[in-house]
Amino acid sequence: MRARTFRLQPPSTRHRSQAILLTLRSVGYTFHTGSGRCRYNESFTPAGAFIMIQTLFGSLEEQQKPSFLDRMKEAVTRTRENLAERIEEAVSFNKEIDRNTLDDLEATLIGADLGTTTTHEVLDKLREKADRKQIKDVEELKRLLKEELLAILTAANSRPVQKVDGTPEVILVVGVNGTGKTTTIGKLAQVFRSQGKNVLMCAADTFRAAAIEQLEIWGQRTGTEVIKTKAGGDPAAVLFDALQAATARKTDYVVVDTAGRLHTKANLMLELDKMRRTAQRIVPGAPHETLLVMDATTGQNGLQQARLFTEAAGVTGIVLTKLDGTAKGGVVVAISRELGLPVRYVGVGEKAGDLLPFDPKEFVDSLFA
Ligand SMILES: Nc1nc2c(ncn2[C@@H]2O[C@H](COP(=O)(O)OP(=O)(O)OP(=O)(O)O)[C@@H](O)[C@H]2O)c(=O)[nH]1
Ligand SMILES: [Mg+2]
């Protein structure tokens, strides 16, 4: 037997890698854990072994998909770099961490779009600690800042999701033009379908040209049926049809696209109200969730619009899109603090898989990773 060596890739999961190692041993491979190298019998070469492993255990690439935490870290890269850089700058000018250092931090936090109210609230807490000489160095400062941000996010995100009796669960998706409503609906359908649920999409944005076709493309992409009417039709009527179909078929979720509307367009707000009343008539308790889609890149402006929406549309949760394209991801904290609403998901790209469930700890860890 002629011995050869190759380097073993790091395992993706412990149990899976143990099973793979056992299988390789059974065909004559020996491993040196210290060096990560392995010896094998030429009659069962690595190419042959990889085919066998893929057949037995599935694709190696598939198993190495990044985790939600990794994807969140990636999405907030610009925000993190911006924050970290500026914190270091603020602190290196003033070695000791006192009130002056914290005054310099104010602009940093506002720059990351935490908003003035939230920034002042966080800094007041930190100033108390600085006065008592409880902040030794920059690492301690970051740790305390992280704690304060997590406390705000956890408070807003502890609101329980409404329990839904029976099916369908109806999710109304609302928001200003261009924030990412239709894209988010496609991504949500993908999430539910991957959980083995059946979904209907309802094309109740009959206002904007091509809105129905755009939703249909998402329907094809995710294998989801779209219930629609003609452009200019009555959104409440198409919602009625969708909910009747869903009730008859025992569909798990109905996700409803609505026209982008501004608070100034009073008639559009009235239309939303009519849709809510229609939904309740067919499915008691519907809509179970009204998600307001907000665009992270619009920052504090978006927050102002969101405030008005929240009052008028009975919003129960937020989806923050385009987190991948901004250095101002701190707006998540401002939204949570100022609207008191949970952030249910964040959008981190334009593809069907680019929607992450929002977890406060994961988010804060990603910001200071
Ligand atoms: N980078 C990035 N782009 C996104 C994300 N979500 C949506 N987009 C893009 O934002 C643009 C607008 O998205 P739409 O889904 O059409 O927005 P909408 O709210 O339905 O717009 P209207 O129907 O006009 O009100 C599209 O180009 C999307 O690809 C995201 O999370 N990240
Ligand atoms: Mg749309």
Description:
- There is one protein chain.
- With 369 residues, the chain is an alpha/beta fold.
- The protein has 15 helices and eleven strands.
- The chain has helices at 14-26, 46-57, 60-63, 68-75, 77-93, 99-111, 116-131, 138-156, 181-194, 211-222, 235-249, 266-282, 299-313, 331-339, 360-367; strands at residues 4-7, 30-32, 37-40, 169-174, 199-204, 225-227, 253-258, 289-295, 317-321, 343-347, 355-357.
- α14 links the parallel β9 and β10 (343-347).
Radius of gyration, whole Å: 25 Å
Compute the number of helices.
Answer: 15
Give the termini distance in whole angstroms: 48 Å
Portion in strands: 5-15%
DSSP strand count: 11
Instruction: Specify the helix fraction band.
Output: 40-55%
List the bound ligands.
Answer: guanosine-5'-triphosphate, magnesium ion
Runs with pLDDT <50, length 5+?
Answer: none
The helix/strand class is alpha/beta
